[in-house]
Amino acid sequence: MITTEAAVLTAVNEPLEYTDILVDDPEPDEVRLAVTNVGLCHSDLHYMTGTVSAELPVVVGHEVAGIVESVGSAVTSLQPGDRVVGALTPSCGLCRNCQVGHPTQCGRIPEIRRRPRPAFAFPGGRAVERLGAIGAFSRHTLMRENSLVKVPDDMGLHVGCLLSCCMITGVGAVFRGARVRPGSTVAVIGCGGIGSAIIQGARLAGASAIVAVDLDDARFPAARAFGATHVVNGTSDVAAEIRELLGDGVDYAFEAVGSARTAATALAAVRATGTACLVGIAPDNAELVLPASDFFFGEKRLIGSYMGSGQAREDIAQLARLYMQGRLLLDEMVSDVIPFRDVDKGFAAMSSGEVTRIVADLTV
Ligand SMILES: [Zn+2]
Ligand SMILES: [Zn+2]
Known about the structure:
The chain is α/β, with parallel strands linked by helices. It has 2 domains: 2-164 and 329-361, Medium-chain alcohol dehydrogenases, catalytic domain (Quinone Oxidoreductase, Chain A, domain 1); 170-306, NAD(P)-binding Rossmann-like Domain (Rossmann fold). It has helices spanning 42-49, 96-99, 109-113, 157-160, 166-177, 193-204, 220-226, 238-246, 260-269, 293-296, 312-324, 343-349; strands at residues 2-8, 17-23, 30-39, 58-59, 63-71, 83-86, 120-121, 127-130, 140-144, 148-150, 185-189, 209-214, 230-233, 250-255, 270-278, 301-304, 334-339, 357-361. Strands 3, 5, 6, 9, 10, 17 and 18 form a 7-stranded mixed β-sheet that branches. A 6-stranded parallel β-sheet has the order 13-12-11-14-15-16, sandwiched between helices. Strands 1-2-7-8-4 form a 5-stranded mixed β-sheet, with no helix packed on it. Helix 9 (260-269) links the parallel strand 14 (250-255) and strand 15. Helix 5 crosses helix 6. The protein is globular and about 60 Å long. The relative contact order is 0.16. Bound molecules: zinc ion (ZN) (2 copies). One zinc ion (ZN) binds next to loops.
């Protein structure tokens, strides 16, 4: 057991509490990670503001990269000093969903995450929860061997961390979720971190038009740099603007905001037989009201994509190769690298249109 510093969420809408916690020793299949970098993700913010509920106290933070510090007795593929990023969707490889190739829907996640003792605890002994069994806003955490992917030596971990949530979610929604075909047309609603990753995915997939939609014009220069060919301000009638620009709706529309309103916009923006794909995390109990005729007369499809809908470890390794080839832009995604103690400030800055992703540096 070691003592480390963590940023603990003890009450919603309150600042994180920086305090010492105890980190358990690794189980046989786990490693202890010295966390170096964590991307600030809107899903963390959902828990911090209570729009999605979590058990408290909890350490949030999940878009994680770090250095392996010690390994459990059964770990064979990792050793101390390895530079790794997290693959956040655990899967057993054995249940029905895993067997048919949908590991993001593994039916045995609670079993996989179960540990004989809490991973984190206060010095007095009270357990501290970890969001998604990760708890990355801690200078050390425990992760299973099969939830980590080694990254190339010359990839900075401050950009590598983006692969574990933002990039796998956005690019995976394009490649595996909606399966965008070369030459097709795409709209992306919401151009923050995930939306920017979707735009990049659409570019890599060979889309012939990529329409970036956002309420904030300040996001458009970055969106164009990531591959957007057109931009539309979300305060307008988005579907009408897209038809005006392209002569028809798009083949694929991605919703990266997490609201019922933008989901309806995504469905309206696709042409007959097109696919709208929901990627943003909506608040608990959000419900959609949609025109039914879009589905039968228009033969539209509405799908969801969670964490890239795929084989996270393989996909992250692929994305790392695309980055090394200069085809996946990561450095451009990172608007700022901030000290660990400034995480609250970083979350407050995220609503700005100038920000694509903010990354915390846990080594300072
Ligand atoms: Zn995330
Ligand atoms: Zn499974």
